[in-house]
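User: Batch of two.

Assistant: Item 1 of 2:
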Amino acid sequence: MGDKITLAVEARDVHGKKVAKLRKEGVVPGVVYGPGMEPLSIQVAENDLQKVVAAAGKHTPVNLTGSKRRIAMIKDVDIDPVRNAIRHISFHAVRADQPVATEVPIRLVGEGESEAEKNGLIILQALDRVEVKALPMDLPESIDVDITKLKEAGEKVTLSDAVVPYGVEIVDHDDGHHDDEEEETPSILDLMVASVWEPAALEASNAAAAGSATDESEVESENGSDESEATTEVDSAKSAE
């Protein structure tokens, strides 16, 4: 939610290798696709597009203006790694009256204000994105979780502590089917977002994780030829399909 993001686009007749000329002129080729419509080739001024991509990301709807107005989500941005310029943009058109699902950032509210941090402890964020579902114009810029009440090492906040705006729901992909009927199904709301650590304990944990990664690399190096052959076989099978 927030200010409406608008982008002026034009229909594009240039395709193939000829789009190189467009890029030299500061124009980015793109496409808009979605249910109930033929894919539409578009072009847009690079300067305008960069601002919109920075503001919208892939979780905020963009109002496309031109010959036909559409609400769309950015699905893919192809970046030239040398020039750091946008080479191509893909939009997925959505309907204003139909909910869409997308990932949004999780924002910790009150960083530096908790008693834990004031006492020299560290709050480590474990989950930085979550999938939500809402009408396009109701999609939030972020899901906020308050950490100001954290005090001691070991305490945590979960998605159940999140502030979820009205009309927005957190998507849980658990289908509810389990082999053991008595097993309690964990809710996505139980996922840990952030926890409190003693600095020394966090340093020791990071050192242990780095050590495990080194051990795994050594094992992979010793068995590299076998794994390489197995990977080649899988790739060949996929190619045959």
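Item 2 of 2:
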Amino acid sequence: MQASNGSDNPGVNIKVQMGDTKEREATLDPVPGPQADANWAEEKERLLAEKAELEDLLRRRQAEFENFRKRVERERGETYEDATMSTVGRLLPIVDDFERALSLAPAVEGPAADYAKGIELIHQQLMESLGKLGLKPLEAAGQEFDPNLHHAVQKVEVPGANSETVLEQYQRGYFFKEKLLRPAMVKVGVKG
């Protein structure tokens, strides 16, 4: 064993010969003294501060990621709902045509009656499917007129009326979930 020469940190050099005849050299640090304890304490404090900083950064990144994930999930849900609402809205003219055809169909017997019954069933199935997506009809006839829900296309004076009341519905209005999809077109009775 040899002591290293000329260094502030005296160490012990050890030369070890391995079985393959190569020599390897390692320096062992001397037993720590008061100066080494102070250096280690400073290093420990620095590493603890760095650890706390990294943990804080990790918590912030996790919170940012969680907020990002929730925002993307919310936006995806809103996009799906908007697309569904738009699609259902485009189907309403078909529903209107079904309802007009069913209301104007004459009473028939025989095979034509079976055909009319089939059309009624198709209309019912369509309404059930749209209802599962969130479509709800707006009942207007007999209700108090609300310009937020009804589109008045005709006003008629009614003697003794206290308020504006929907007398007749020309076109059904609909909600999509809780949003008004289409106002009802109505005839309104006004105080006369």
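The chain is about 50% helix and 25% strand.
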